[in-house]
Amino acid sequence: MDTQVIVGRNPVREALARDNGRIEKVYVQKGAQVGDVRAAAKAARVPVQTVPIQKLDRLAPKTTHQGVVAVAAPVAYADVAEMLHGVAPDRDTVKAAKPILVALDEIEDPHNFGAILRSAVAAGAAGVLVPERRMAPLSAVTVKASAGGALRLPIARVPNLAETLLGLKERSYWVAGLAGDPQPGEQAATVWDYDWDRPVCLVVGNEGRGLRERVRSVCDTLVSIPMRGPMESLNASVATGVALFAATRGRA
Questions:
Q1: Mean pLDDT over residues 110-115, rounded?
Q2: Is the pLDDT higher at 22 or at 110?
Q3: Residue partners of 75: CB distance under 8 A and separation at least 6
Q4: Rounded to an integer, what distance in angstroms lies between the CA atom of residue 89 and that of residue 180?
Q5: For 87-96, what is the mean pLDDT?
Q6: Integer Cα distance of 20 and 121 in angstroms
């Protein structure tokens, strides 16, 4: 299952108009006058990156790309509203079902992304939320690293992760941010002590920077994994797996 490259102004514009949730990004040659493509990408909430022609030549070698190339994921993203309705359509159902969601705050490595999806499926998570920008693509590499997990749960792309988390709280989810460095005044617990027996969204930050400040600020609690040995932290995908299985262990 390979990542698809769509080449040329009209094919890219038509793919964006179909808006099937698979277009990851549109690359536009620097200086190209392609306002219609940019407008279509904006309407479909797909990021556009301006790049030198050499980048397009590498993405689509030996083709007439007309200064426009789009990359489509092998798996379609879910619509966030449809995903949440499918998981639990109302607050009473959310409270009764106590779903686990996972939100990824700018995970950059597709191998980490895939490994997290694999753990999410294995732990019984109901869905995954990712930001539209500065996030590893749902590429063939990601799907392979997920061992098929990317095909087994809905993954929704959102324009503003912090606002989406606030919306989850209104739907009766608790938001737990995975972070090992709680600051004074922040609610904090270890993954072993936190009460996971509730509807919860586990938020995982970037491999190097951790949670962005705004995302961190909307978390109800920060959860950490105690380190017994001389290491300060775990790989993002490993830490997510530990936290997810701590969540399943602590449930009724």
A1: 96
A2: 110
A3: 1, 22, 138, 143, 150, 151, 155
A4: 33
A5: 97
A6: 23
Distances (CA, A) of 27 to 2, 7, 124: 18, 10, 36
By DSSP bridging, strand 23-29 and strand 68-72 are antiparallel
First to last CA, the chain: 38
Helix runs in 19-133, H state only: 35-43, 53-59, 80-87, 91-97, 110-122
Per DSSP, the three-state class of 85 is helix
Which DSSP letter does residue 71 get? E
**How sure is the predictor about 1, in pLDDT bands with cuts at 50, 70 and 90?**
low
Give per-residue pLDDT as tens, 156-170.
Answer: 999 999 999 999 999
Burial of 136 per CB tally in 10 Å (0-12, 13-18, 19+): buried
Q: In this predicted structure, what is the pLDDT of residue 186?
A: 83
Distance in angstroms (rounded) separating the CA atoms of residues 175 and 135: 20
Structure tokens at 10: 């009209």
Strand partners for 104: 204
Two structure tokens written together for 150 = 């990317």
Asked if residue 74 lies in contact with residue 1, where contact means CB atoms within 8 angstroms, the answer is yes
Rounded to the nearest 5°, which phi and psi values hold at 232? -85, -25
Cβ atoms within 10 A of the Cβ of 167, count? 15
Chain CA centroid to CA 239, Å: 16
Q: How far apart are CA 100 and CA 194, in angstroms?
A: 14
